[in-house]
């Protein structure tokens, strides 16, 4: 069954989700209409090279606006250097915007004093989780620390039991928890990175190419895990990826970035079937060319979406 949702730009040129449910081949993925993340006119410029006025300005994110509904997975695609990671880092609070607004559950992401407001509820998982872990500490310590920080009053033995449970949820054993990051495979490290992110009970995960470095079979397992975690914990995802199959498997809507701007934002199936912006058409057809219709990628992915 075709996707029933419809997203249209409002009179400010901003796309907002307007559906309650996606139905895909008899399976449903519920999400609410409530927007939990609102991004408005977001800009970030980097100044690189040279001295003083000789510096070059790179407008990495250039006036980006969109909403994400609770429980939704929004994919973010675009060529290398289009600004996807910068946008993800801005939303996760790792970078401060030059201008524009990020509002999560009605509250601005930065307070008047320049401090992050959503440290806990928005977490980020990177492609290379190896470098995101401390190489000198076993994995379970690195999950325990954020857990304890955000669960004051929980005894150490209870915290350890909860960390063991988190490892289990992501498909790891207590034995994996005792290893150091380099003693895990890439897929196991991504599972551990997800467990660590979940330790603080986030609501939104920014997933910055979390499966790009994995081989095909491990990638499929992690995508399946992401689907399950989303259902179990009611998570919302901003999913950055190059791989369009993976985006089709996981995402309700997809935003296409080009030179720091979102040039198209649409329901995944309608974007894959009929991209409207010339850059989206070029991007999609450069990956797979089947009579200009990529609907089959979306349909083939339906079995995984759950
Ligand atoms: N810390 C930084 N300092 C200077 N320039 C940066 C910095 N981070 C990103 N850029 C530049 O901003 C632009 C957008 O980069 P970004 O990493 O966001 O793109 P991307 O779409 O995520 O690319 P990729 O898919 O290759 O990861 C690029 O021109 C990049 O070189």
Beta fraction: 25-35%
Order of helices and strands: EEEEEHEEEHHHHHEHEHEEHHH
Bound molecules: adenosine-5'-triphosphate
Largest sheet: 6 strands, mixed
CATH architecture of the domain at 21-121 and 202-305: 3-Layer(aba) Sandwich
CATH fourth-tier homologous superfamily of the domain at 21-121 and 202-305: P-loop containing nucleotide triphosphate hydrolases
Q: Strand order of the main beta sheet, please? A: 8-9-10-5-11-12
Give the low-confidence spans: 1-30, 289-293, 302-306
Distance between the amino and carboxyl termini: 14 Å
Q: Label the overall shape.
A: globular
How many β-strand runs?
12
Structural class: alpha/beta
Classify the helix fraction into a percent range. Answer: 25-40%
Can you tell me the CATH topology of the domain at 21-121 and 202-305? Rossmann fold
Please provide a written account of the structure.
Helices cover 35% and strands 25% of the residues. Strand 6 and strand 7 (107-108) form a beta hairpin. The longest helix has 18 residues, at 216-233. It is globular. It is α/β, with parallel strands linked by helices and 306 residues long. The chain has a domain at 21-121 and 202-305: Rossmann fold, CATH 3.40.50.300. The protein has helices at 84-91, 129-132, 139-150, 156-169, 174-177, 186-198, 216-233, 244-250, 268-273, 278-287, 295-305; strands at residues 21-24, 27-30, 35-48, 56-69, 73-77, 99-104, 107-108, 122-126, 204-208, 236-240, 253-258, 261-267. The strands form 3 sheets. The chain has a 6-stranded mixed sheet, sandwiched between helices. A 4-stranded antiparallel sheet has the order 4-3-6-7, covered by helices on one side. A two-stranded antiparallel sheet has the order 1-2. The site of adenosine-5'-triphosphate has 12 residues, from strand 3, strand 4 and helix 1.
